[in-house]
Design brief:
Layout lengths: L2 H7 L6 H10 L25 E5 L29 E3 L5 E5 L4 E5 L6 E6 L19 E6 L6 E5 L4 E6 L4 E7 L22 E6 L5 E5 L4 E5 L15 E6 L9 E3 L7 E6 L5 E5 L3 E6 L4 E3 L13 E3 L6 E5 L4 E5 L7 E4 L21 E6 L5 E5 L4 E5 L2 H9 L1
Antiparallel strand pairs: 1-25, 2-3, 3-4, 4-5, 6-7, 7-8, 8-9, 10-11, 11-12, 12-13, 14-18, 15-16, 16-17, 17-18, 19-20, 20-21, 21-22, 23-24, 24-25
Length: 399
């Protein structure tokens, strides 16, 4: 294999393009790494546990000049209260640019940002392209295992839509076409066309799409895609994996159809286990083989975390403590948190230094990159920030 492309990806440059080139390289085969010449000791800003801004200027999109930055370097783009984050397997980062009503992407090779959906005023069903569609209040993002479909949950529209970022298409996956909320009665849980305030989405390793239908206190699974060429899950195969459409309180181990007190965020680990936040009972795990919901691992979560993310390789859980401007980490099986990022003070400081000495302002989104870096939507700083090699840093700190 020629050295040129790999050397460029692992070069000693700086900036968003270099950062996202490193991100993409993290997904390459380890054998390829031996072909890359050493650049010496990495700068402080790239040491494990350090934090830097990778997307956004910090100037919100509603200032004079408005939304902008498409086709340019990601750290020169304007975001407006970014929230949900998701990665494709190739390292493409997707951002819910919430108050701009758009979904932005960052190319892992060039570090450039573009809009892939939203920003228009047309109902998605009539939009000729996803970028002409109106997408208010995107609360959750997930990418299919094939990488060709981006799922977005809109709480205000009570819908989950499927977007093809390459073909600019958008179509309904779940919810009513008119956006009306559907409150289901107890045990009336198998109707995918009825959603009420969907708060999050996640995709499992087998391509199954999970929807956190929070208003109906249930987690719905669609799929899996099995051996089909498309990344879209089979909408004919719908099942409820947790909840029964009515509020309740689960115990340590309860049947999967026990009521959920207040369904929050969800994610899927590398083995396909679904974790969700039950506001009345903490973190819960779905055991699909036993058809139960368990609390075998019940960490001390922050109150109402706005995002959770499970590293699919290590099983470590990350959660935002938005009210205290912190991001917490939990080793598998551990109840006690470790601060990953933030000091507890609201502000913007610390780029280039340890993440736990940096100030954040209302962190509202999390995602772990294919290369093992933690990405944080620093919502009211209107930036996306990255903690380098987060698991290595935490392992070194905790011994």
């Amino acid at each position: 294999m020629p050295l040129g492309p790999l050397a460029a990806r692992f070069g000693c440059g700086t900036g968003a393009a270099h950062t996202f080139a490193l991100l993409r390289a993290g997904a390459l085969a380890l054998a390829a790494l031996t072909l890359v010449p050493s650049c010496g000791t990495p700068p402080q800003a790239e040491m494990p546990g350090t934090i830097e801004t990778v997307v956004g200027t910090g100037e919100p999109g509603w200032l004079e000049g408005g939304y902008g930055g498409d086709a340019g370097d990601a750290n020169q783009a304007r975001l407006n209260a970014p929230g949900a984050l998701a990665f494709a397997a190739d390292g493409t980062l997707y951002i819910a640019d919430t108050d701009n009503n758009r979904i932005r992407s960052v190319n892992p090779d060039s570090g450039t940002v573009n809009t892939v959906a939203g920003g228009g005023a047309t109902d998605w069903a009539r939009a000729e392209c996803a970028t002409a569609a109106a997408l208010p209040d995107i609360a959750g993002l997930a990418v299919s295992s094939y990488g060709d479909t981006l799922y977005a949950a809109s709480t205000l529209q009570n819908q989950v839509v499927a977007i093809d970022p390459h073909e600019c298409t958008i179509e309904l996956t779940a919810g009513r076409a008119d956006g009306s909320a559907v409150q289901l009665s107890e045990h009336e849980t198998g109707e995918l066309d009825g959603l009420w305030w969907p708060k999050d989405v996640a995709v499992g390793p087998d391509g199954t799409l999970y929807i956190g239908d929070s208003g109906n206190d249930r987690v719905v699974a669609v799929g899996p895609h099995e051996a089909r060429s498309s990344g879209r899950p089979d909408s004919e195969y719908v099942r409820v994996v947790a909840g029964n459409g009515a509020p309740g309180r689960s115990g340590a181990t309860t049947p999967a159809d026990t009521g959920i007190g207040d369904l929050g965020r969800l994610d899927v680990d590398g083995e396909g286990s679904v974790f969700f936040v039950d506001g009345s009972a903490g973190l819960r795990k779905v055991d699909s083989y036993k058809n139960t919901v368990t609390a075998d691992w019940n960490p001390r979560l922050p109150e109402d975390p706005q995002a959770i993310a499970v590293n699919p390789r290590t099983g470590r859980l990350f959660a935002t403590d938005t009210a205290r401007n912190l991001v917490m980490a939990y080793a598998p099986g551990s109840r006690e948190p470790t601060v990953v990022a933030g000091t507890g003070s609201r502000g913007f400081t610390g780029d280039g230094g340890p993440a736990d000495e940096a100030d954040l302002d209302s962190p509202g989104g999390l995602a772990v990159s294919p290369g093992g870096d933690l990405y944080i939507a620093d919502t009211h700083n209107h930036r996306i920030r990255m903690v380098h090699d987060v698991d290595t840093a935490l392992d070194d700190r905790t011994g």
